[in-house]
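tool=predict chain=A
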Amino acid sequence: MKVALAQINPIIGAFDKNSEKILSFTQEAKKQGADLVVFPELSLVGYPPLDLLDKDHFVDNNLKALKNLLPHIRGIAILVGSVDKNTHKSGKKLFNSAALISNGKIISKHVKSLLPSYDVFDETRHFEPASSHHIQLTRLNRTPLAVSICEDIWNDKDFWKRRLYTFNPLSVLSKHKSLCLINLSASPFSMGKHKLRMRMLESLSKKYKVPSIYVNQVGSNDELIFDGGSFALNSKGKIIAQCRDFGEDLALLDLDTQEGTRHEISNTDMESIFKALVLGIRDYVHKCGFSKVLLGLSGGIDSALTAALATEALGPENVIGVLMPSRYSSEGSLKDAHDLVNNLKIKSLTIPIHELFETYLKSLTPLFKNENSSLTEENLQARIRGNLLMSLSNQWGALVLTTGNKSELATGYCTLYGDMSGGLAVLSDVPKTLVYDLSRYINTLKNVIPQNSITKPPSAELRPNQTDQDTLPPYSELDQILKAYVEEHAPISTISKRGFPESLVRDIVQRIDRNEYKRRQAPPGLRITHKAFGIGRRLPITQQYREGSLTQGSLTQK
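tool=predict ok
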């Protein structure tokens, strides 16, 4: 049997387009001699559909699209992901399902058993898990196949130290002899995730002594980036087929000879991050109906990196850089911004904000009287720039990209309705130290980011001789503390034992906690780490918990 791994980039809810893509990949696989084509989880729908699943007509249209596929599947079989209805009188109304289609008919249906409700996932909100009669082998041309969906393979007791579920659907499937394990997946990208999947499937293939096929969605939907990287392993856990990462692909596998096509994937984390952010920008812009973007260029490293990524994603003709110098903008920074524009060959325009700033001050200063207004004046410059960018966006229909990084967003070193104004926060999950590393990586591909933007001390340039370190600790320290607190959930005492003063750790933790209200109003940001600010991190704004605040004898009785 020959199996094609069809790694596609569906659009959520675009049933006609997704169906056309499925048929196109099926026809190509048929030309290459495939007997079966495996598509990703919810490939007909796009993942994650979220509360679109509350709309009955959305679910009905998905089922209609599935039915419309049937007459076109002849001389080949496909496994395709879709939403199915739960006809029982109890439980959630829907199933996360996969259908095996052959010769114009649905041969079997397979329902997802393990429904994740952690981090960015919330599948128990809409889906009912599979019951025992749903978990069964299927047969294609008398060949037994064990079909599972995404999370169903993430719960093996011999791989995980602590399992999230008491039930393992693979243990049921393994009781019956199968030719191979097939998994339809929509697993989001984060650094190191592909290697984890490979190790997990290697363990399963060896344990059950069967080859395994893993087909993952590719593309970006809102905050989530899906890297694809679909692959197949033999019964000894050795890779025998591989799709490329961060792009649609088709790879063929011969289960009889245990051989298949292998396409190259990223060799380093930096290459993966670069491809992820480029894909994230491209899909967000195009799937939301835009063609052009604009962003403010300060001459600093963050805006330079954002512009370079956007240019790679959309082409220089679709990127507009806006220089908005103030009285505090240095000649060096303006030169760096102009050099970047020339290197990237993007469009640019300059709007000085000095007169606008003076007009605001003329109106506000009498109200401030003798009060210290230095911070207000700094934020005012950022808000003027934000208003200008949004005005240009309204006029030209171009999406505004914000340029703030994760370190700034974490500590509140950003201005609401100022530099946070925009439609997509490209670097919101990229710590400042990684901003530098990624910029250096891009320059190894093509030297476009001015060296001075990389080497000069970072500054918002909102007052004379300002640097970020006037307000923040060195980014080399800040980012380590940030990672430990946000991504690892480490307590203050543990973080301070890593060589940081406890007072510093407490200060940074307090900044992170008290700026939740800002992040809640930020545009969606592209997720590349294990824990990003966004849908995968849910904390209350109105809360007063402080680590160590409850001590023995602290309660009083009146």
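The chain has a mean pLDDT of 94. DSSP finds 16 helices and 20 strands in the chain.
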